């Protein structure tokens, strides 16, 4: 058994796929560089991400999958569910061994698993578009903290770039430890030292614009006014807005007090 170690990026995974075929490895498992999961009694092959190799695999997939099928592969990778890199590799083997397009073959376990993983990412990205709550800092930067299950920043950043094209903003993903920053011209990836107290009342009072608390209260009041108490259905509410998102939603954060 060969353990394939890569840098956890999509390009790194594509490079790994190329090298598995190139070196004719037959029995492989995947491992990420930053995760201490080395297998005992196994040989290892460390992959250095190579854009040329990654592009060759991508071009091969483009010839055998539709545009939506290729997007499904990418979204499935971003789901980060357990062993998705191995599931995707089995999916790719099936793609390359077939003369016809196989992305609709739900009788195949890997195809079904990839579709489910992609759906998970797609659903999470839609939730993030709805649940991102920007707060204005004293230096006129709008920032938001998110904590999605899937790595959705790569697929939602264009949505926010188009929607908020006239203001500087930063969306930071606590779980995946990076963010995207828009400077009125382009979106770039940023790494930050994140403090778990970032959403505390004291911290917000120190960094937020003087009018931010006022506008947050307006939003909370609006949120309360559109919720009719007699029609309150907490089960349905949690279904559409799971509790794991609440700590980063303005309407769910306690009012900042002086």
Summarize the structure.
The protein is α/β, with parallel strands linked by helices. The chain has three domains: 1-64, no CATH class; 66-131, no CATH class; 132-252, no CATH class. Helices cover 45% and strands 14% of the residues.
Sum up the structure in keywords:
single chain; 3-stranded parallel sheet; globular; alpha/beta; 9 helices; 258 residues; 5-stranded mixed sheet; 45% helix; 3 domains; 14% strand
Model description:
It is a single chain. With 258 residues, the protein is of the alpha/beta class. It has three domains: 1-64, no CATH class; 66-131, no CATH class; 132-252, no CATH class. It is 45% helix and 14% strand. It contains nine helices and eight strands. It has helices spanning 10-22, 51-64, 67-79, 84-97, 109-131, 153-163, 201-207, 212-225, 234-240; strands spanning 2-6, 28-32, 43-46, 135-136, 142-146, 169-173, 178-182, 187-190. It has a five-stranded mixed sheet with strand order 4-5-6-7-8, covered by helices on one side. The chain has a three-stranded parallel sheet with strand order 2-1-3, with helices on one face. Helix 1 (10-22) packs across helix 2 and helix 5 runs parallel beside helix 6 (153-163). The longest helix is centred in the middle third of the chain and has 23 residues, at 109-131. It is globular. The relative contact order is 0.08. The model is unreliable at 200-207 (pLDDT under 50). Residues 84-251 form the DUF4130 domain. Pfam families: DUF4130 (PF13566). This is TIGR03915 family putative DNA repair protein.
């Amino acid at each position: 058994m060969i353990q394939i170690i890569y840098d956890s990026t999509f390009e790194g995974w594509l490079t790994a796929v190329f090298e598995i075929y190139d070196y004719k490895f037959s029995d492989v498992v995947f491992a990420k560089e930053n995760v201490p999961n080395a297998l005992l009694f196994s040989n290892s092959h460390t992959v250095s991400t190579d854009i040329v190799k990654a592009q060759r695999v991508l071009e091969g997939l483009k010839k055998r999958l539709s545009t939506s099928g290729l997007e499904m592969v990418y979204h499935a990778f971003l789901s980060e569910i357990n062993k998705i890199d191995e599931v995707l590799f089995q999916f790719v083997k099936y793609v390359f061994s077939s003369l016809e397009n196989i992305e609709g073959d739900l009788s195949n376990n890997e195809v079904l698993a990839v579709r489910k993983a992609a759906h998970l990412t797609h659903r999470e990205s839609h939730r993030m578009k709805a649940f991102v709550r920007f707060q204005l800092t004293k230096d006129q930067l709008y920032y938001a903290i998110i904590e999605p299950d899937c790595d959705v920043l790569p697929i939602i950043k264009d949505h926010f770039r188009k929607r908020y094209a006239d203001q500087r903003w930063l969306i930071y993903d606590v779980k995946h430890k990076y963010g995207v920053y828009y400077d009125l011209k382009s979106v770039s990836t940023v790494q930050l030292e994140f403090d778990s107290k970032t959403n505390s009342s004291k911290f917000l009072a120190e960094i937020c614009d003087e009018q931010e608390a006022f506008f947050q209260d307006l939003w909370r009041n609006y949120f309360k006014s559109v919720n009719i108490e007699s029609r309150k259905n907490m089960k349905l509410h949690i279904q559409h807005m799971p509790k794991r998102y609440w700590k980063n939603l303005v309407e769910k954060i306690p009012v900042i007090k002086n």
